[in-house]
Amino acid sequence: MMNKFEMRDLMNRVKCLLVQPSFLEKEPLRVFAIAYRFGFEAETRLAARNTLRHPIFSAYIKELEHIPASAYHKTPPVPPANVVLCCVHHSLSWPLSDGKIHDVNAWFVEYMERARSALQGRPCGEVVSDPLLLMDAMETAAHCHTCRSFAYLDMNTFIREHFLAEIEKVIDMVDLDIPFHLPA
After folding, report:
1. How far does Cα 107 stand from its chain's mean position?
2. Distance of CA 130 to CAs 44, 124, 127, 136, 166, Å?
């Protein structure tokens, strides 16, 4: 409709406002529905990726009533299998803060299992650095005479330099097959 009345400048302003980080981070599903409704493909895809940062089952939003179910169904509401598998199949050795490759301890394996579960509910990198997720691992590591002094630094190095990048890389590979067959 906006195209019909030559309102391109207004459309471009709406697009920019719609994907402002403050709105996109808080309301990605709402942004998705609005962007899809008005045919903003790039903004729709960006919002769809951002839905991964929120719990799978979120509150109902009225804007979904204005788009076809097929569009919503094509968003990635469930974690891609690869995001969850990257935790399960991770090597049992990793580079620590000293730059050397070390075998992992039981506390790290437990952390990876908890991270895998957390990623199933919210498949995004920020989940694996959640202080509550890290707390149990750090508490267990504190009981190990070998691990306790470097566990926090090593874990942060692993997450920041390896794990986050791997998760985001896998998420970027998610195919967003969103149908854009809008009425003229």
Report:
1. 24
2. 27, 11, 5, 11, 17
- pLDDT by residue (tens digit) across 125-180? 888 889 999 998 899 888 888 788 888 888 888 888 888 888 888 777 776 767 67
Residue of 37, 31, 41 lying closest to 61 (CA atoms): 31
pTM value is 0.61
What is the distance of C-alpha 103 from the center of its chain? 28
Three-state SS letters, the chain: CCCCCCCHHHHHHHHHHHCCHHHHHHCHHHHHHHHHHCCCHHHHHHHHHHHHHCCCCCCCCHHHHHCCHHHHHCCCCCCCHHHHHHHHCCCCEEECCCCCEEECCHHHHHHHHHHHHHHHHCCCHHHHHCHHHHHHHHHHHCCCCCCCCCHHHHHHHHHHHHHHHHHHHHHHCCCCCCCCCCCC
